[in-house]
Amino acid sequence: MERAVLSSVFAKTLRERLRGFRWWCLVTLGFVAMYGSVYPSIKGKESLNKLLKDYPEALKNLVGFGGNLDIASGAGYLGSEVFSFWAPIVLLAVAISAGSAALAGEEERGTLDLLLSLPVSRTRCLLEKLAALLCEALALALVLWLLLVIVSSLDGMGVSAGHLAAAVLVALLFALDFGILALVIGAVSGRRAMAAGISATLAVAADVINALAPMASWLDKVKIVSPFYYYSHGDPLRNGVNARDTLILLTIAVVFAAVGPFLFRRRDLTSA
Amino acid sequence: MTAVIQAEGLVKYYGASRGVSGLDFEVTAGEVFGFLGPNGAGKTTTIRLMLDLIRPNAGKLELFGLDAQKESVAIRRRIGYLPGDLHLYERLTPRELLRYFAALRDLDGLGEGERLAERFELELDRPIKALSKGNRQKVGLVQAFLHHPDLLLLDEPTAGLDPLVQITFNELLREVAAEGRTVFLSSHILSEVQRLADRVAIVREGKLELVDTIEALRAQAFVRVEATFVKPPPEDAFAGLKGVRELERRGPVVLFALEGPIDPLIKALARYEVIALDSHEADLEDFFLALYRNGAGGAL
After folding, report:
1. pTM for the complete prediction?
2. Fewer CB atoms inside 10 A, N or C side of chain B?
């Protein structure tokens, strides 16, 4: 067992992340359980939707997740309570922390010098770290999906496992875009805080741009550069997979992942 | 003799005061090559260039006849490296760290790790974060020797080692050299290089001051005379004496390098009141001092 755990950069990175990953699973379980226990008291209460109708557009956009704000329905409730806020945040937190720790973390701790004195190319090192990041985020997304499927069926939310999967998939891809960005910034700068800070700021900006888009026409034009727009606007909880949005989020991730090795190979590593 | 390391006009600007500016040297198979210089002289920069951790601004650098940058992975397969500023995975035990590094080097188990750990009396199963500086350094050494490398790049290898472990380390280096393997030993400690190296390069401010065998350096050695006066003699008291060079002054103590007969110096000393006089063959320490006193080292 121990042998397998330390057989590659990929395996070792996963092992290092395991401790924190358990906590994120617990956090996810806590949130899903909390929202699941509240829903039965809201279910079918159309009066709540009337209250929401008078919210400013930006606020509706901020708390909504595609489609109409309708928290009395299962899809509307999950969209505004789970997918507009904490689900992407938990996934982002895991992806950005894994991404910024991947190379910048090792460089700051001074272990990267020793690791890259072994016959491991920088490209391979980056790709194995990237693979570990993908696995960790994917694993948390699966946990989230499973819990949502359970809660949805217990509460009679009427959202299919397939539609939940579509929503979790775009949330995962949205988080990966910024997690991979953090990995790449870390690979280029060697600075973990910078990698995490820039990626997290951009992720928040993506949400805010998308939310404020209805307020100003120029923002409405700009929103198409925001990954959050592609994350939310297809309303996957009601409509299932939106191929275009999913593909765009995937493309962003692939582009970041592709420039990473190119930039990492070229630079001088800092010595601790 | 084949060149294991070949540097030609190697330049690396690196920060304000560090880096190397035009290094030329060659290390041949089976020798222990001492790379000697004060901290910040460019020793670590040179080693990190060999590992492709940093890239040169100009010049050629080949190891085993391979380009240090283009064929770095193949080169690193044959190198064992001990960083001067050693940082290990704190949460692992030495056994886990060695297993990890062995796996990345495609070795079974711990490679030579178990045998070497026994030799250095290194405990393999306590977390690295609980180890003393000396024990960490042992972990660093063991991982460098893990795969029976053809070339060892050791940056200040004995830092933190207690004297007994240093003896084990010295034995190990001699065995390595006897097997025809090559050691590049960077140090600012002269006695260490003097004891272990066949040839030595002295580097200062990114430039090589000289490359020679230890024997040749000894042959050129001068006699060192240390005179202690009642009160410091005038600054120019010993200027212009033939074969006599003033190396250092510490208050009433003056250190001379003597390259000819001692008589002129004795006569000059006699003009002042002398408390003590000491003289012996210079070792590398004095040599080094003399070199640095003279800037470019032209007088040698």
Report:
1. 0.86
2. N
